[in-house]
Amino acid sequence: MPASLNDLCILVVDDEESIREGSKRIIAKMGCPVDTADCGDTALEIMAAKRYDIVLLDMKMPGTDGLEVLRRIKARDESILVIVITGFATVEVAIEAMKTGAYDFIPKPFEPDQLRIVINRAMEKIRLTQEAERLERERRQTLLDLGMEKSRIATILKVLPVGVMVTNSQGQVVLINPAFLNLLGLDPQKRPGEHVSTYISDAGLCQLILDISRGQHLDYEDIPAYEFSISEDRFLIARGRPVLGDRNECLGAVADLVDITAMKVLDRLKSEFVANVSHELRSPLSTIHEQLAYVLNAQTGQVSADDQHILARAKEKTQGLISLISDLLDLSRIEAGTVCQEIKPVHLEQLLRSIVDFMESRAKSKNQTLRLELPDDPLPPMKADPLALESIFGNLITNAVTYTQEGGEIIVKIELAGLHVRTTVQDNGFGIEAKHLDHVFERFYRVKNEKTRFITGTGLGLPIVKNLVESLNGFITVESTPGEGTTFTVSLPT
After folding, report:
1. Does residue 328 contact residue 464 with C-beta atoms inside 8 Å?
2. Could you tell me if 84 and 43 lie in one domain?
3. Which of 57, 143, 158, 402 is spaced 20 to 30 Å from 417 by Cα?
């Protein structure tokens, strides 16, 4: 088969010179190379040395007749298109030739247009054959690529230490790796194909994956991580994401599973140590703080100004240590799971209104504007621990007032976003440099610069907020620009 139609070679075989030469002139004008032969034996000799794509073959020739030449051509190469040339008296021979494998025939005498039509038809046949072969090659290559890709993906999934499960939009498992089965204690021979509930016994995780599979979480930021335990000493964390199609439609979900037992044990030991030390320190520090306060109040006028300054600084530092210990104990209680236990319906608008009203006097002392923006339609009550919510938004609004300059503005805004209530605390204060944003939720991390170095704090407020938010199955993000302000966004499930 030629590489393209421009490479086609045509051979005219006829014992009549006028037919040979006339055909050659017509075909040459069509842009195809063309050779001639005056008999069948000569044609076969020529074809032994050179390949032709189309052969015009006269049926009645001296020596080896056209029918025999046709048989030999077909025996040599089935893809060669043979167009038989026959007189009116040999139509039966032409029919026999067609049965033997001839592509078409043209009767003598023929007009130039008749020959062009037959040749063009043969060329179109070759073009379609080439296209079909190309498509078949591409199909085979595609299947090969898919097979290799599937094999690569299967190999990668098998060796991953992280459990991976993929579901379709109906919640059926279409892919699962050995690590996932092992982490859940399932039969290693269990295969995909069943409903997700067959593999996952935890109702909360099962429902989360089903919700993602059905397209209820197209915004990645709205999908919380899910922690659960399969025994008293085994803890896992799962994260899910939707699988989106070309039109952004949800095709299913992919979930990964990680064993966090070691981290949980370490956190528990660390929390117990911090709690024990904090309990031991708080009592003597409180005593020292009270005694310093008594000395300062009782000995006024009897202590020099320098000594009063030293005592005041000591009192201030002990108060800071007491606050630090209180925050550490709060963190320990959060991590131990002893907070967020009094879950009840809460109207977040009312709670935020009370916090904003409480903080308004502090904002006015710095000539700041503190404003609460509520949605036009009332929000549904959410199930949460009201004390945890007060701690979360009290900390965030206090920080906004503290880290905003005189005359600044703080806006607290609440809105419904799908299955979550989204609350933002936005200020136009000092702002946070990008290099600090990934660390502000770390314990004891404080951003210090020329504007904030005189502000006291423990560096535990935001870690407490983050832990409380996650305890309520929500998440928190921060955006900030130095000199322009900071926005904290808290998303909590309704």
Report:
1. no
2. yes
3. 402
Same domain for 124 and 253: no
148 domain residue, yes or no: no
Cis preceding linkage at 284, omega within 30: no
Q: Does 153 reside within a domain?
A: no
Handedness of CA 43, 45, 49, 51 (dihedral sign): positive
- Element at 310 (helix H, strand E): helix 305-335
This prediction has a pTM of: 0.44
Q: What's the number of domains the chain is made of? A: 4
Find tokens 């490479």 and name the residue. Answer: 7
Q: Which domain holds residue 190?
A: 160-259
Please give the Cα distance from 210 to 240 (Å, whole number).
Answer: 10
pLDDT by residue, tens only, the chain of 494 residues:
554 555 788 999 988 888 888 989 988 888 888 999 989 889 899 998 888 889 998 888 888 888 888 889 888 888 889 998 887 546 677 677 778 888 888 888 888 888 889 889 888 888 888 888 888 888 777 766 665 666 677 677 777 778 888 899 888 988 888 888 888 888 888 888 899 888 988 888 899 889 888 888 766 566 778 888 888 788 899 988 888 887 888 888 888 998 888 887 777 777 677 666 666 666 777 777 677 777 777 665 566 777 777 777 777 777 667 666 666 666 666 665 555 557 788 888 888 899 889 888 888 888 988 988 888 888 888 888 888 888 888 889 888 888 888 899 999 999 888 778 889 999 998 888 888 888 888 877 777 666 666 666 666 778 888 888 888 888 889 898 888 889 999 998 87
Looking up residue 169, the CATH number of its domain turns out to be: 3.30.450.20
Q: What is the CATH number of the domain that holds 287?
A: 1.10.287
